[in-house]
Design goal:
Elements: E1 5-10, H1 17-26, E2 31-35, H2 37-43, E3 54-57, E4 60-63, H3 65-75, H4 83-108, H5 112-145, H6 155-171, H7 181-191, H8 194-202, E5 212-217, H9 224-233, E6 238-242, H10 247-250, E7 261-264, E8 268-271, H11 273-283, H12 291-316, H13 321-350, H14 364-380, H15 388-398, H16 401-409
Parallel strand pairs: 1-2, 5-6
Antiparallel strand pairs: 1-3, 3-4, 5-7, 7-8
Helix pairs in contact: 1-3, 1-6, 1-8, 4-5, 4-6, 5-7, 6-7, 9-11, 9-14, 9-16, 12-13, 12-14, 14-15
């Protein structure tokens, strides 16, 4: 009687993909259980060692990515013919795992500058040296049989194939056929295995994403910078829009009794629209390259936010109509032009051909500035025709395909 297999992991390839590929090649059915990141917190205490993937075999749980792949392979004819051969294959795969750990350490580095230096060291020295060792190890047997070990395809071939794939996807490090001929041919050979090829063509398309839930009123307001960032990044999120009538009942349960709030993975709540925007920008690559640059970007956001708060207080919270008109006139004739002129100087000084406020790439500050340009036009009829840098920046952000699509399709509101 065959065993019942249940493989549990996130809805991504990641550490479960070796097991899925081995299952595919062996033609063995299993239940591919994929969980959302926001469900992991409640599942983690029940998981052996607090980690996934987990393979349930007739109710018995087996853990560890490499261990699971080896177990499946040894059970279903994708391993050696005896314990000693399996130990040799295991030694090889431990070496491949060590290379992978070097890559993981670079990915986990939180300091952007250190990550950049470590990434260069990895690509230019560490990987070539370790891949050379791997190439030389497999070369005698591969030249003779076209596989890594003995005369049949094993889980070692599949593991090395997947590792080469990951290098290309995450580090843009492609194996050169001239430099590593055996590894290059191995990758092609495994990809052409009928069962593997079918899995690659039909497997779920998935990327690693956090679960985001944004709560705000049913208009643009302070949440729009966050929505625009999510749109530009292509990051999915739950856009929870509440009515004014719902707010009194919800307010006491909100941190600081304000919205927007962003729930992250169901167990963390962030507050403050600028704070949330900064978090998303830094988390998803739309910020500076290090802490100092991020602090500089925050200076721009503080400057822009001061004007935004002034506008909001004038238009929505000033009860005296005469004072409201006086404040509005001062904003239109003095404050707004001064802020726009200051931002224009910074854009010109930055010298970006696309009008970026800071650096040479689109950041969350550019989108915040884009929104400011939109707001001063909506509230005061002020255009940026007299500010060529701002005009270029506004056009650049507006022309981003994902932002353009969001603006065209977003729910309609007056502000």
């Amino acid at each position: 009687m065959s065993s019942t297999y249940k493989l549990t992991y996130f809805d991504i390839r990641g550490k479960a993909e070796p097991a899925r590929l081995v299952f595919a090649q062996a033609g063995v059915p299993y239940e591919d259980i994929r969980i959302r990141q926001d469900k992991w917190a409640e599942m983690k205490p029940k998981a052996p060692f607090g980690h996934i993937p987990i393979l349930s075999v007739d109710g018995v749980e087996v853990c560890g990515s490499v261990n699971i792949a080896r177990f499946i392979a040894e059970r279903h004819g994708l391993a050696g013919d005896n314990d000693l051969q399996n130990a040799e294959i295991g030694s090889l795969m431990d070496f491949v795992t060590d290379i992978g750990k070097n890559c993981e350490n670079v990915m986990k580095e939180t300091d952007k500058e250190k990550q950049k230096v470590a990434g260069a060291e990895l690509s230019e020295k560490t990987l070539p040296a370790m891949l050379k060792t791997l190439e030389e190890y497999i070369q005698p047997n591969f030249t003779k049989h076209g596989v890594v070990y003995e005369a049949k395809l094993t889980w070692a071939d599949i593991g090395i194939y997947l590792f080469i794939d990951n290098l290309a996807e995450y580090f843009e490090f492609k194996i050169s056929a001239d430099q590593f001929p055996c590894l290059s041919k191995l990758h092609t050979s495994v990809a052409e295995q009928p069962n593997i090829k079918k899995w690659l063509e039909t497997r779920p398309k998935s990327v690693f994403t956090m679960a985001y839930k944004l709560t705000y009123f049913d208009f643009r307001g302070k949440a729009e910078i966050i929505r625009l960032l999510f749109a530009q990044l292509g990051v999915p999120y739950e856009d929870v829009r509440i009515q004014r009538s719902e707010w009194p009942a919800m307010k006491p349960d909100m941190p600081f009794q304000q919205v927007p709030v962003l729930e992250v993975d169901g167990n963390m709540t962030l507050c403050g629209h600028v704070n949330i925007a900064r978090y998303i920008g830094e988390k998803h690559g739309m910020a500076g390259n290090n802490e100092l640059e991020n602090a500089q970007l925050a200076g721009y956001s503080d400057y822009i936010t001061d004007l935004n708060l002034n506008i909001i207080q004038t238009f929505f919270y000033e009860p005296d109509q005469v004072k409201k008109e006086e404040k509005s006139a001062k904003l239109k004739n003095e404050t707004v032009p001064n802020v726009l002129q200051t931002l224009e100087k910074h854009i010109q000084a930055n010298g970006s051909p696309k009008g970026y406020v800071f650096g040479s790439k689109l950041t969350w500050i550019d989108i915040l500035t884009y929104l400011l340009v939109e707001d001063v036009n909506n509230y005061f009829g002020i255009t940026v025709d007299a500010y060529p840098g701002l005009k270029k920046l506004h056009a650049e952000v507006a022309s981003q395909p994902r932002i353009k699509k969001w603006v065209e399709e977003r729910p309609k509101s007056d502000y």
